[in-house]
Amino acid sequence: MHPMLKPALRRAWRGRNTVQFGVTPAHAVTLGPMDIATGSFLELLDGTRGLPLLREEAGALDLSDRHVDILVSRLTEAGLLDDLSAGGPEADALRRRAETLERQRPDAASLSVVHPEPGSGLRRLAARRAMRVQVRGAGRVGATIAAVLSGAGVGRVEVLDGGRTEPWDIAPGGLPAAAVGERRDSAARQLVRRSAAGGPPRQAETAGAPASGEPALSLIVVAPRDGLSVYAPDPDTAAPWIASGTPHLYAGVIEATGVVGPLVLPGGTGCAGCLALHRAEQDPQWPRMLAQWKSGRRSTVPACDLGLATAVAGLAAAHALSFLDGELPAVTGARWEAALPLLEWRAERLGAHLDCSCGAAGQTEGELTSAAGAAQDTMAG
Fold it and tell me: Taking Cα atoms as reference points, which of 220, 219, 290, 225 lies closest to residue 252?
C-alpha cells in the first residue's frame, strides 16, 4: 500500500490540534488530537511512499512506528486515504489508458469522496466501462443524458428515437445544429461517440458479457420528447422491462415542469402501473383526461424550456450514475418535480399498488435492498 490523502478533500486546521478534511457537511471529517509533528507527517502521505519508507521518515519527526500505523489505520477507517495501486484489475486496465483517465480525473476524485475504501472510486469508474445503458428519446433531455453518461465513462450508451432532427431538438450538450435534418438515432450515436471518454471497452474488460458479446442492459432511461409519456408513463410500454427485471428511470419536461423519476426496480418499487392505479383512485376523471391528451396527432412543438431541460438531464444522469455505481439514489421509487418560474424541487414517494401485477406491493426496506442487489448482480454479468 502507498497511502495517499484523498486530494479531493481540502484540509484545514480547526484550532491547534484538530484537522478537518473536506468542506461540506455531507463528506467532511474531523480528526484529532493532532500535534505539529503528526500534521507534518500528513504531508508525506502523497502516494509516493510505502509504509516502510513512511515509518523511516516518521522517525525524523520523532514519531514511532506504532504511531504511524495507528494514524494510517484511523485515516483509512475515516475514508480519508486512497491507494494509487488499489482497485483491482479493472482499475489497472483504466490506469493504462492514460488519456482516458486524465479526462476522467474529476470523476475519479468525486467517486473517491463518495466511496471511502482505498481504490474503490477508480474501481467503480472502471466498472462503468462494462455497462450498457439504453436512452429512449433524443430530444433536448434524452440526447443530453446520453452524452453525459457516455462522457462519464459508461461503455455502451444506446439511443432510440425515430424521425429526423428538428431545430428545436438542438441543445448545448445535446444534439448540435449540424444534426438538423439527420435521423435522430444516427445523430445521437455520433453525439455519444464524440462525448465518450476513450474508445469502447476492450474484450478483456467485457468478460462478463453473454456469449453473444451483447452485455445485458444495466439501465433504461426513458426520456421521450413528449413529456406526457414521463408524467403519465404507459404501463404497457414498461411491461417487458418489469418482466425481464430491467431497472428503468423516467426523465423529461412537460409544459413548464421538469420531472426526474421514478427509478423503478422491478419487483421492489412502484412502477408505471402502480402510478396509473394510484392516480385513478385519487382522481376518477384522470383516465378519461389522459385518453384525451394522448389521442390525436399533435401539430405544435412541445413546451420545453432549455434551462429546465438541461437541469432535468443533468439530475437524471447523476441519479443514473449513482445507481450504476451501486447506490440507491433518492429517485428510487420516487419522483422529483420542479416547475418554472420558482424551480423548487419537490419529491413525491411512489408507493407500490396492491392491484398492480408488478409484485412490488408489500415489499419491506430489506426486500427493496435485496431487489437492488439483484439488479446490481444482473449488471455485473
Answer: 225
Can you give the residue range of the structural domain that contains 106? 88-126
Whether residues 119 and 150 fall in one domain: no
pLDDT in the model for residue 367: 52
Report residues of the chain scoring pLDDT below 70: 199-213, 363-381
Cell of 150: 457516455
pTM of the model: 0.90
Can you tell me the distance from the alpha carbon of 95 to that of 108, in angstroms, rounded to the nearest whole number? 11
Domain count, the chain: 3
Q: What is the pLDDT of residue 373?
A: 53
* CATH code assigned at 213: 3.40.50.720
Q: What is the 3-state secondary structure (H, E, C) of the chain?
A: CCEEECCCCCEEECCCCCEEECCCCCCCEEECCCCHHHHHHHCCCECCCCHHHHHHHHHCCCCCHHHHHHHHHHHHHCCCEEECCCCHHHHHHHHHCHHHHHHCHHHHHHHHHHCCCCCHHHHHHHHHHHCEEEEECCCCCHHHHHHHHHHCCCCEEEEECCCECCHHHCCCCCCCHHHCCCEHHHHHHHHHHHHCCCCCCCHHHHCCCCCCCCCCCCEEEECCCCCHHHHCCCHHHHHHHHHHCCCEEEEEEECCEEEEEEEECCCCCCCHHHHHHHHHHHCCCHHHHHHHHHCCCCCCCCCCCHHHHHHHHHHHHHHHHHHHCCCCCCCECEEEEEECCCCCCEEEECCCCCCCCCCCCCCCHHHHHHHHHHHHHHHHC
Do 21 and 104 fall into the same domain?
no
pLDDT, position 132: 97
